[in-house]
Amino acid sequence: MTRKLTQEEAEAKGLDAKYPAQLLEPYKGRMVKYKYRFLNCGHEWELSLNNLVTGRGCGACYLDLGPTYLYLLQHEGFKAFKIGITAVEHGRPWDSRIRQFEYKGWTLVHKVKFETRAEAEAAEQAVLYSWRYFPDGVRPEQMKDGYGETVSRVYVLPADVLAIMDKGD
Ligand SMILES: [Zn+2]
């Protein structure tokens, strides 16, 4: 029981954990922190084998659950709004997600910061709920990903959307 695990045994235990992770360093003992690569998300994060086998998950993903922006974009060509959320910090600038949309002709109208991803998701759902009877702003063939979070600008006053977004601020 107190025998130190071999490298192979330690690696096998990591891969067998609730959140399987690949040990990236020589094994020296249960309580030592190692760099692991989590199989589900691909992030690298340091923790001990002891924490891993007791069910600790990826710390980078945990950060992703923290402060989150809810953002509203508009598109002149599509005459559409789009709502979305993105982590405030996740090893990259928060607006890297926005940049991807700007590249496709979207511009940022408004953003609100929430302390947790869950709150941002709730506010996003509230906005989508207010759009539920209106047509999508973008057709699936115009936008592979995320057309379900768009609405035709004809039906929506920006001030109404901002009011729902800001309620959670
Ligand atoms: Zn992760």
Shape: elongated
- Remind me, CATH topology of the largest domain? GIY-YIG endonuclease
**Strand order of the biggest β-sheet:** 6-4-5-7
Tell me roughly what share of residues is in helical segments: 25-40%
Level-1 CATH class name of the largest domain = Alpha Beta
User: Helical region count?
Assistant: 6
> Ligands bound here?
zinc ion
Domain unit count: 2
SSE topology string: HEEEHHEEHEHEH
The CATH architecture category of the largest domain equals 3-Layer(aba) Sandwich
Counting helices, strands and paired strands, the structural category is: alpha+beta
How would you describe this protein?
- The chain is an alpha+beta fold.
- It has two domains: 7-62, no CATH class; 65-167, GIY-YIG endonuclease, CATH 3.40.1440.
- 30% of the residues lie in helices and 25% in strands.
- The protein has six helices and seven strands, in the order αβββααββαβαβα.
- It has helices spanning 7-15, 49-53, 59-64, 96-102, 117-130, 158-167; strands spanning 21-23, 33-38, 44-48, 68-75, 80-87, 106-114, 150-152.
- The strands form two sheets. It has a four-stranded antiparallel beta sheet with strand order 6-4-5-7, with helices on both faces. A three-stranded antiparallel beta sheet has the order 1-2-3.
- Strand 2 (33-38) and strand 3 form a beta hairpin.
- Helix 5 packs antiparallel against helix 6.
- The N and C termini lie far apart (52 Å).
- Residues 38, 41, 43, 58, 60-61 line the site of zinc ion.
